[in-house]
Amino acid sequence: MSETQAAITESLLLQVVSNNKSLVTAGTLSPLTEDAASLDLNVAEDIDLMPYLSDEGCTWVLDLNLSEDFMDEMTVNGTLTLRVEYSE
What we know:
By secondary structure, the protein is mainly beta. It has one domain (3-66). The chain is built from 2 helices and 3 strands. Strands 2-1-3 form a 3-stranded antiparallel sheet. The longest helix is centred in the first third of the chain and has 5 residues, at 3-7.
């Protein structure tokens, strides 16, 4: 994310939805650090993701909230690493 893109970014949401479960916010990060090379987002502890992960269809949504509306298309390049640790 460039400095200009980071300057207009307010927050980041990680959400998950599946064929049989409603959309739920798994974690948030706000504010975003402009000079961060990587961001770590911790999932809320009170969310059980196992029903989503074991469903036949599961979609992860990464929602980047901007501080103002932009009519132009914005391209942000990045790498997303999703690590899920589960314990009973």
